[in-house]
Amino acid sequence: MNTEQNTVVRHIRTVLVEDDTPVRERLAHIIETWDQADLVAVCSTVAEANDIIDAEPINLLVTDLKLPDGNGIEVIRKLAKQQRDAQAMVISVLADERTVLEAIEAGATGYLLKDADTPDLIESILDLMAGRSPISSSIARVLVRRLSDDNKMSHLDNETAVPALTPREMDIIWGIAKGFTYGELAERLKISHQTVPVHIRNIYRKLQASNRSEAVYEAARLGIIRL
Question: What is the model's pTM?
Answer without folding.
Answer: 0.64
